[in-house]
Amino acid sequence: MTTRTRRLTAPLAAASAALLTAGLLAGAVTPAAAHTGTDAHDASEHARTWAKDQVLRPGCRSYAYRYRVSPPSDQAWGLETFLVGPGGKSVASGALHSGSDRRKGRDTFEFCSTSTRPGKYKIRAKLTYYVGFTTHDGWADRSRFRLRRR
């Protein structure tokens, strides 16, 4: 499994620190409010991912997908993405957040063809956002695409 990494810059470090502080404060002020709802909370109206069918290329490559996030508040948000391959095997993951990413855009999963096979893939996305000191999180609808050999 390959994970996409970003270089830590001053603005990214500041945004990450703010997200961490907000999360810690929310837990310190009201432990019960740190998570609202159940783990199956539906965030499909606030987040979406999609990808078109692609060709599995030799070697280690980047495979594009698109995302859109529209949380109900202007506060911090984070979108964790997980690429699940045929048979439920986890292939790659990524993370986007309000400190360094736009609400709508393009991102990539990076993985190698030697450890990956063609077939149907799913993108799972978990959105976390804040309203005041309350954390809200939930899963967006799964999106699907196919990776095929040339």
Automatic annotation (TrEMBL):
- Organism of origin is Nocardioides salarius
User: What are the protein's UniProt keywords?
Assistant: Signal
Please report the name of this protein according to its UniProt entry: Secreted protein
Signal peptide from the UniProt entry: 1-34
